[in-house]
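Summary of Year 1 activities. Much of the first year was spent building the evaluation harness for sequence design. The harness presents a backbone, in tokenized form, and records the residue chosen at every position. We chose the following record to illustrate the format because it has been used consistently in internal testing since the harness was completed.
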């Protein structure tokens, strides 16, 4: 992860003595089918073509059309193209980032602690754990 973005990197393949023209970045959707990511990973963009990586906001991956659910492995394959044609897709990743979503509403509401006095207010609350965290570390309350 790179902040709120997921970074997709790949090795530059042998170009067969012909310059690479573009990459095709295919992401697996929640239903197991693939879709080419063109908005954030336009493989014909000279910066992406030169650097062999792109970044996609996590929020894009967890909403339509990808609709990845919390804890789902984010999976992708990449194909390279030159004037001769396209390569076979890279091996689908078997490890990496898991989908994260916004934290859920706490299961219980904060309660006034019995030790509250006229000058000190004490509140009891349950820390968010498990699925309530959205799959990410809670940074502030």
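For this record, the design step produced the sequence shown next.
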């Amino acid at each position: 992860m790179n902040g709120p973005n997921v970074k997709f990197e790949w090795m530059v393949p042998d170009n067969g003595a012909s310059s690479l023209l573009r990459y095709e970045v295919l992401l697996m959707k929640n239903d197991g089918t693939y879709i080419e990511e063109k908005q954030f990973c336009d493989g014909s963009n000279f910066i992406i073509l030169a650097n062999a990586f792109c970044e996609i906001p996590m929020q894009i991956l967890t909403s339509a059309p990808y609709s990845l659910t919390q804890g789902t492995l984010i999976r992708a394959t990449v194909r390279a193209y030159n004037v001769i044609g396209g390569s076979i897709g890279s091996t689908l990743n078997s490890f990496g980032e898991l989908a994260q979503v916004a934290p859920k509403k706490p299961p219980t509401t904060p309660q006034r602690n019995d030790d509250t006095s006229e000058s000190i207010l004490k509140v009891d609350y349950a820390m968010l754990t498990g699925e309530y965290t959205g799959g990410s570390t809670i940074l502030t309350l």
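The longest strand covers residues 22-28. Quantitative recovery figures across the full test set are reported in Table 2.
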